[in-house]
Structures are given as C-alpha cells and as structure tokens.
C-alpha cells in the first residue's frame, strides 16, 4: 500500500484472501495516535474495495494490541478544541466495515485499544492478552464504546467495575465474560485467526455480509424490530444466486460454488 508509518498490511491465507492489519508502533505500545487511526481507516477502505479479500484481521505487535489513545497527544487538548473538532469521531471506521473483521489481541488492549477490539466482529485473544478501560485513572472516561459496547457484552456490574476502577482483566476472564470467543497460546494466535478468516472467506461474501449486518442489528434495536429485520434479510437471501447454489449443492451432495452474487 501507500507509505504506512504506524501499521503494516499483508495478504494472508492459502488463497491470499485475508487482509492482515498489524498495528506497528511498538515503542509506544501501539498507542493510537491520530495518524495511526487514519492509516487504519484508509487501509480498511482499500481492503473493503478489494474483491479478493474475504475477511480482515486486526492485530498488534510486541506486548501490546494497543495501549489506548495516545495520551501524549491528548494531554494538552482543551474542551473547546475536542468538542469543536469532534475528537475521535472518525476513529470508528472498523465498526462500519461490511466485511468481517477479526481482532487477534496479542497483549494489552487498554482504553481505545479495548474499544477498537470491540468494534471488530470476533475477538480471539492470546493467553497473554489483558483488557481494560483505564481512562478513569487519567481523569477521563472511555470515548469510543467502552461504556456502551462493553456494557452490552459483559453486562452492567462487570462493565461498571472495569470502567469505574480501570482494572485490567485477563484473557481467561475475558473469555468467561463473553468478551472474547477463544483464548489461544501466543504463537498460535495469528494462525488460528487466519484459519477462522479463511473459513468465513470460503463462504458466500454476500451471505456473510448479510449475516454480519443482521447480527449487528441485535446491538442497535429492540428484539421485535431486530427479528423483523432478520426475517426480511433472510427473505432477501432468496434473491441471491448463492442461496440457490448453497441449497442445491446440499441436495446434490456436493460442495457449493459461490459466486458472491
Ligand atoms: N499513549 C501514549 N504513550 C503510551 C501509551 C498511551 N496510551 N501507553 C504506553 N505508552 C508509552 C509509554 O509512555 C512509554 O513511552 P516512553 O518509553 O517514551 O516512556 C512506552 O509506551 C512504554 O510504556 P510503559 O513504559 O508504560 O510500559 P509498561 O510495560 O511499564 O506498562 C502499560 C504498560 C500498563 C500498558 C502502561 O503503558 C499504561 O498504563 N499505558 C496507558 C494505558 C491507558 O491508560 N490507556 C488509555 C488511554 S485513554 C484512551 O484510550 C481514550 C479512548 C479514546 C477512544 C479511542 C478510540 C479508538
């Protein structure tokens, strides 16, 4: 890609159909400065536009996934400036991805790092991962989902405990609480995430995008509305070639050949 300073981008998997974004600012524990987030956003645009890519993985490097927003960059900002510039408003590109995004959390996922992981669709964590919303210790509060997404994922009491104390939780706790779906030995984290991405990428990109959007609605609306949206999206899969192919292949006892249409 273009001149990337804070991240690297690679294609992975047997079919080279997995986009891997690695946060690569290890000296600052991958602190999320504005320039880094801009690179993530632009790379997401590229990977989403690339038809060869079926799933995206976001990971960190060294001992951090990301240790939060860049405190040095934020230290001297004032209210008028952060309000008028709507500071952080454009940091949520990953939450609006159409393609599935897997977070492979290799180490510290703190503050904005934890929030970034929660913007992804699935989180795999290394045994060494640590999650937390330490903003309260800095005299501020989470600003990109740490009071909202986290609460919906782990429930009120646990979210309150994390957000009000800034405590860190282990990968094992994060799994028990439903924040991550799998805890993996450090050297297996990326291979496992790639395997998961490949599994998803082998299916119809169209059905995967619809399924992702439908699950996403569970976090946005009431149960009744969500069930209605789900039903209509289910119906609309009957307008696709891939739905016909998937069911026909099952009945014919052969592997489906999806065309993403
Ligand atoms: N910002 C800037 N620099 C950082 C950050 C950060 N968040 N975290 C670590 N660094 C730097 C350190 O300053 C240090 O730099 P230097 O070598 O120049 O002194 C270097 O990284 C290494 O860090 P440590 O020496 O502290 O490493 P330790 O192993 O001793 O400690 C910790 C690791 C526990 C992770 C520790 O670094 C720490 O507590 N970091 C801050 C964690 C934090 O408070 N994060 C929340 C930030 S606020 C926030 O994220 C608001 C969310 C906004 C929304 C974002 C949307 C995506």
From TrEMBL:
What family, per the record? Belongs to the enoyl-CoA hydratase/isomerase family.
UniProt KW keywords: Lyase
SUPFAM superfamilies documented for this protein: ClpP/crotonase
Q: Tell me the protein's name.
A: enoyl-CoA hydratase
PANTHER family associated with the record:
ENOYL-COA HYDRATASE, MITOCHONDRIAL (PTHR11941:SF54), ENOYL-COA HYDRATASE-RELATED (PTHR11941)
Question: Could you say which enzyme class this protein belongs to?
Answer: lyase
Superkingdom field: Eukaryota
CDD domains named among the record's database cross-references: crotonase-like
Cite the EC number.
Answer: 4.2.1.17
Q: Which species?
A: Limulus polyphemus (Atlantic horseshoe crab)
């Amino acid at each position: 890609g273009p001149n990337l300073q804070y991240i690297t981008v690679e294609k992975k998997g047997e079919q080279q159909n997995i986009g891997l974004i690695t946060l690569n600012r290890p000296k600052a524990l991958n602190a999320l400065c504005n320039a880094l987030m801009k690179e993530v956003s632009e790379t997401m645009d590229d990977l989403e536009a690339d038809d060869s890519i079926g799933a995206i993985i976001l990971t960190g490097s060294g001992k951090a996934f990301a240790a939060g927003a860049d405190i040095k960059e934020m230290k001297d900002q004032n209210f008028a400036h952060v309000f008028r510039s709507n500071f952080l408003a454009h940091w949520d590109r990953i939450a609006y991805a159409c393609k599935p995004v897997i977070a492979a959390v290799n180490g510290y996922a703190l503050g904005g790092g934890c929030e970034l992981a929660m913007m992804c669709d699935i989180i795999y964590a290394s045994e060494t991962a640590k999650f937390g919303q330490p903003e309260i210790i800095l005299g501020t509060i989470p600003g990109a989902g740490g009071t909202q997404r986290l609460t919906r994922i782990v429930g009120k009491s646990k979210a309150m405990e994390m957000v009000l104390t800034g405590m860190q939780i282990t990968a094992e706790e994060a799994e028990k609480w439903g924040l991550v779906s799998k805890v993996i030995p450090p050297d297996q984290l990326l291979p496992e995430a790639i395997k998961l991405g490949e599994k998803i990428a082998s299916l119809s990109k169209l059905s995967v995008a619809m399924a992702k959007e439908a699950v996403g609605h569970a976090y946005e609306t009431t149960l009744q509305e969500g069930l209605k949206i789900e039903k209509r999206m289910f119906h609309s899969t009957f307008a696709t070639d891939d739905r016909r192919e998937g069911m026909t292949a099952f009945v014919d006892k052969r592997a489906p050949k999806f065309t993403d249409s």
